[in-house]
Amino acid sequence: MTADVNPVSVEHLGAEYFQDPxxxxxxxxxxxxxxxxxxxxxxxxWLITGYAEARAxxxxxxxxKRMPGWHPPPDSIFAALDVHMLNSDPPDHERLRRLVNKxxxxxxxxxxxxxxxxxxxxxxxxxxxxxxxxLLASFAFPLPITVICxxxxxxxxxxxxxxxxxxxxxxxxxxxxxxxxxxTAMISYFLALLAAKRREPADDLLSALLAARDSGDKLxxxxxxxMAFLLLVAGHETTVNLIASGLLxxxxxxxxxxxxxxxxxxxxxxxxxxLRYVNPVNNATFRCAAEPxxxxxxxxxxxxxxxxxxxxxxxxxxxxxxxxxxxxxxDGSGHLxxxxxxxxxxxxxxxxxxxxxxxAGLLARFGSIRLAxxxxxxxxxxxxxxxxxxALPVRLTP
Length: 398
Ligand code: HEM
Fold this sequence. Notes:
The protein is an alpha+beta fold. It is 50% helix and 10% strand. It has 18 helices and eleven strands. The chain has a six-stranded mixed beta sheet. It has a three-stranded antiparallel beta sheet with strand order 5-11-10. A hairpin with a 5-residue loop joins β2 and β3 (44-48). It starts with 10 loop residues before the first strand and ends with a strand. The model has no long low-confidence stretch (mean pLDDT 93). The protein binds protoporphyrin IX containing FE. Protoporphyrin IX containing FE binds next to α13, α14 and α18.
């Protein structure tokens, strides 16, 4: 890090940041669109909070996922779980993404509409008999996890196990021992599942990837496990927050909620604005500078880690007018909630469809949805990557 030659103060990201990253980003951005930070675990990085700088960084070929020539130590957790497209640079990135691209095109995803609707209606039926519920645990989580499990061919009954493992892996506050335990459990789980699918292939994405691996040698065994891990984690850690934090944003902005109830045709635009506003992924995953570069007048040295704040960019007043306000009628296009550049979210069409069905279903089923606790008592998960609620207790009336 070259903070010493750049006369700016260093920001420490900790418990307060988890609860409210927005006011930290606003304060930092007002000073400069890029700031040296210390992560909760002690690592130093550059945090980009301005929209123009964030968009440029996400498309900058000098900012790579891995330093050229670096490989995870063989037989390590990282060798087994981390060799996926989101951690890869060209040309590996394209090879890995191409293998699954077709399964996530808007057309293929549209074919899932009846099944996603049926899963949603089933969850709403379960909620209907309960005057009060944690909407996150009973609706926002089971909907996307059931969909991605079915797509991949992962038994949905195991979801409580990998919900716990996955929460550990994206957390900034777990001990190394717990991290190792949960990551190892995740690896063993996928190895056993893949072995079972090799014996008995089914009509699912993991079986298709195994066939590709076993015939054309396009994926190594580690790449296969990493791909399964990425798709499962990315497929549910994010959409759950769009649905739960999105509903919270609507409950806290009753005029916008009424507007949506009065005009369900607004649902697509509402999902875009909620993506901009609630930022299920707070910061993109780390990049590192493959060569020295300058961002907003600050010198970044070769090897420095760079963190692009998507939620910072999405609330930049230079890009969005009244950025702290929720406005379902705004043209929210250009938001960075799904990232930008070669790592732009593969699952964006699926996430959009799930969220549209979820919000339309919830509002049609319940004429009144209210928070069951004061908003000030809601807690956010301890992660710099994900911005998501721990729970969302609500009262529901048909
Ligand atoms: C609201 C829901 C979602 C949000 C906000 C979201 C956000 C993102 C973002 C910001 C990135 C880029 C990260 C970076 O550049 O560091 C990304 C990548 C990715 N997402 Fe999503 N995502 C969502 C849902 C999904 C779903 C449902 C899937 C389904 C499998 C998925 C799969 C992926 C994959 C595979 C990548 C890596 C793409 C690449 O490296 O080329 N995401 N997502």
